[in-house]
What we know:
The complex is a heterodimer. By secondary structure, chain A is an all-alpha fold. Chain A contains five helices and no strands. Chain A has helices at residues 6-24, 32-42, 46-55, 60-89, 94-98. Mean pLDDT of chain A is 85; it is low at 98-102. Chain B has 17 helices and six strands. Helix content of chain B is 58%, strand content 7%. Mean pLDDT of chain B is 87; it is low at 272-280. In chain B, 52% of the residues are buried. The longest helix of chain B has 28 residues, at 118-145. At the A-B interface, helix 1, helix 2, helix 3, helix 4 and helix 5 of A face helix 1, helix 2, helix 3, helix 4 and helix 8 of B.
Amino acid sequence: MIEISGFVALYIFMLAAFTGYEVISKVPVILHTPLMSGSNFVHGIVLVGTMVALGHAQTPLEQAIGFIAVILAAGNAAGGYVVTERMLEMFKSSKDDKGDKA
Amino acid sequence: MSLIINLAYFVAAVLFIVGLKQMSSPTTARPGIIWAGVGMLLATLITFVHPEISGGVNYTLIVLGIAIGGALAWWSGKKVQMTDMPQMIALYNGMGGGAAAGIGAIYLLQATPETVTTTGLAIAVIGSVIGSVAFSGSLVAYAKLQGLMKKTLNFPGQQLLNLVIIALVVILGFMMALGDGTIGGGTLLAFFVLSLAFGVLMTLPIGGADMPVVISLYNALTGLAVGFKGIVLDNPALMIAGIVVGAAGSLLTQLMAQAMNRPLKNILFSQFGGGSAAAEEEIEGTMKEIQANDAGIMMAYSSKVIIVPGYGMAVAQAQHKIWELTELLQKRGVDVKFAIHPVAGRMPGHMNVLLAEAGVPYDIIYDLDEINDEFKTADVAMVIGANDVVNPVARTNPDSPIYGMPILNADEAHNVICVKRGKGSGFSGIENHLFYAENNRMLYGDGQKVAAELVASVKALG
């Protein structure tokens, strides 16, 4: 794997923080709830971390913690995706289903 | 192999950022979540060939864990009512925080003087604290919104107790980070128990109305915790996704707090309505009633109607009938618009989701800033299930607890119809002066029933 250490980590941290801020700075209020849900889904990537952590677990205690962590992370990712998708699926423009009425 | 894995993580990180960007506009939001989903799938699948995963038992546990957690969450997510969405997000978010704390626990358990650095330990410790607080705090938030925990808990010395706990967490954290890597089981256990307790104690005194902001805050915290775990595990996908969410979530929290006119520090460190109720002004005028039939006719012969929906409408499940009414009015050539206050529903944007579920297109739904000047030109403003967000005292009476909160100027419309279940004040317990205004008529009844009557009366006109 790539070695990320010291200042490189700090630079990634800084750039990612600005990216996050920029990406949602112009979001309309109507999307606040879906976006919160969507960002909730994105940090479900923690699943990858839990898989690696459980993958090199050695003692039963570590395996137990890792197993629970994988369950929780999978729940975060799957649940986050389903509810976000359900919410966004409903956003329709009036042009979509009845011509140019609005 | 390592190259392919790294490439997959890189692509996933790009997809997450693109997905989030697309989710910030209604026209591209749907593909946005799908792209982010593709990124997640890619990153998860490629991790199965990650060189650090070893041992048949561990593989089995990973597959089993994903199956259990994923299936349960998928099923509950499909089933949940749109009105219950905020607490569901809190629950899923708490799970993510708990997972981040779990990674931290394993890292700290495995730490030996040869394998760790002080920086690595410190980052693992910080990430574990944040993850634990987000975990237990989100669960309390979920319990409160779900109605499992009705009361806000206040007791003397609460702030002091919180302070003592956080001080202990910091001391234990320093001990672990500055040590040589050999961490006693007792220390580690105490550290996690206290972190979890802090999350609970911090959330308990916060009232249900402020909970959305708190959920958003915990969402940002989980993101941050995940980012820190990414540094610990040398995993750029975790780092980037986590930090991006941490930053985006922090901004979102700020925006929500602003929309509710509640500075974040007031939400976290003080209690709403703790002070004595402000002196009420004498209210002039009386409440005048109107029947649904007359209200329907009034709207049918208007040229412009603005509907102000509140959470009460959603509770009464009236949004489908309201949309039916809207379509009927539109057929008669009435210009119908929806005005959404930032805190309508349980959190900003929640009302939009509820209306969208009923089929209302988003381009006739307007924000406070976009529509407030239009009330002057509206023939009818219909307020349904909302109260405090249209109370003019927020503009006029500096002594009122809601003074300064931005409100929808429904009172400026030529006629106002307030649909309400019964007499009585709103969520905050403040008398609504709009109800006594000269141009206002009260329409009493259950939201859904009233909406059905309105539909019938407009239909009767042919």
